[in-house]
Amino acid sequence: MVDFRRLEDVDTAQKRVLVRVDFNVPLDGDGRISDDTRLRAAIPTIKALQASGARTILLSHFGRPDGKFDPAASLATLATPLSKLLETPVLFAPDCIGPQTRAIVDTLAQGGVLLLENTRFHPGETHTKDGQKGYDPAFAQALADLGDIFIHDAFSVAHRAQASTTGVGLALPAYAGLAMERELDHLSMALDVPKHPVMGLVGGAKVSTKIDLLNNLTTKLDYLAIGGGMANTFLAALGHEVGASLCEHGLKNTALEILDNAKIANCEILLPVDVVVATDFKAHAPHRVCALDELKDGEMILDAGPKTVTRLLDAIDRCQTLIWNGPLGAFELPPFDTATIEVARYASRRVKAHGLIAVAGGGDTVAALNHARAADGFSFISTAGGAFLQWTEGKSLPGIEILKKSD
Ligand code: AMP
């Protein structure tokens, strides 16, 4: 369990509190916010700070402006939508450092909220002075000078060591915000101190992007179901015929090593026992269910078959915790979304009826579970991509390290 400093551990009254949020919201063609989930995620922490009489200063990146001002990447447009959600005025500073910003911070009243301009307008956010990836400590210090306390509330950027995340977090007393806390508590519950038996379900396109993740999960889980395109690599490594399927034949030894590691760690691997195949990679392509090794010329595996789904549902029945990353098939192309939909809906029903703890995240997982209309039934869905994967790989995240209790 990660033992980290939380908002409740600090008295923020009258303090200048720098809060790292992730306001990197998607925009539509007209520059309007198409999904305000990220703004909403920050509201509980901001409200708690307002209630405590803190002076809240919000820091965020937006887009990739490459270290210079770009009007299209200005956070100015977010002040009004944020103000509406908070039902309180939100001030805006046209730079995130400098004397003018300092002057605005100095006028900020208790309970006041100030949004600073995009941190990525400064090269020091993401690069050292000599242009290496990292951050410029002088820029981090200039940000830190604006506050007394740092609250990290953006798990989605916790895997990055940048000025407005790690840099400020090292310069000021750092605490997790309420969204970060929720994320860390759920991820810990699924992976660090889970109720056993625990099952992992890892799907998606390729093994090559998830080798560390698979190896780490085999050390922690009782069952690991492998699906999607990556299952083909395992099936081929075991000598099965996968025809024209997506498959990384060059990773045979890696796949066999992962299977060996799982055996040593007593983690049962569940691979497909039947598959849905088609000759065209497109929605509603003519298809059939077949056993392994019964593929005909030109056929490719695009989904798990019904026997496999039944096996997965049985395994879920035996488990108290489920951690899910990646679809079980080419879910964007119906009917090759069938296994993903059936298993996702079943898991969400087990959450409600049997108290299963089901946590999901990373990459296409959120889209797949939304597509299955099962996301609401999960105990927790992480919308963080890279940070979720890095956590699941068992690697430390610089944005979390700064929050850990040292005593
Ligand atoms: P990832 O980003 O690694 O989670 O991969 C997600 C992608 O894998 C989705 O776009 C799926 O369509 C794709 N995928 C899953 N299963 C298969 C499969 N059997 N063949 C081809 N693509 C697949």
Oligomer: single chain
Binned strand content? 15-25%
- The coarse overall form would be elongated
Strand arrangement within the widest β-sheet reads 3-4-2-1-5-6
Our Rg estimate from Cα atoms comes to: 23 Å
Fourth CATH level, the homologous superfamily of the largest domain: Phosphoglycerate kinase, N-terminal domain
Could you name the ranges where pLDDT drops below 50 across 5 or more consecutive residues?
Answer: none
CATH class of the largest domain: Alpha Beta
**Count of DSSP strands:** 15
> Which fold does the CATH topology of the largest domain refer to?
Rossmann fold
Key words describing this protein structure:
407 residues, alpha/beta, Rossmann fold, six-stranded parallel beta sheet, elongated, binds adenosine monophosphate
Summarize the structure in words.
The radius of gyration is 23 Å and the shape is elongated. It has 407 residues and is α/β, with parallel strands linked by helices. The strands form three sheets. Strands 3-4-2-1-5-6 form a six-stranded parallel sheet, with helices on both faces. The chain folds into two domains: 7-181, Phosphoglycerate kinase, N-terminal domain (Rossmann fold), CATH 3.40.50; 194-392, Phosphoglycerate kinase, N-terminal domain (Rossmann fold, 3-Layer(aba) Sandwich), CATH 3.40.50. The chain is built from 14 helices and 15 strands. Helices cover 36% and strands 16% of the residues. The model has no long low-confidence stretch (mean pLDDT 96). Helix 4 (137-144) packs across helix 5 and helix 7 (211-220) runs parallel beside helix 9. Helix 5 (163-171) links the parallel strand 5 and strand 6. Residues 203-206, 209, 228-229, 246, 301-302, 326-327, 329-332, 363-364 line the site of adenosine monophosphate.
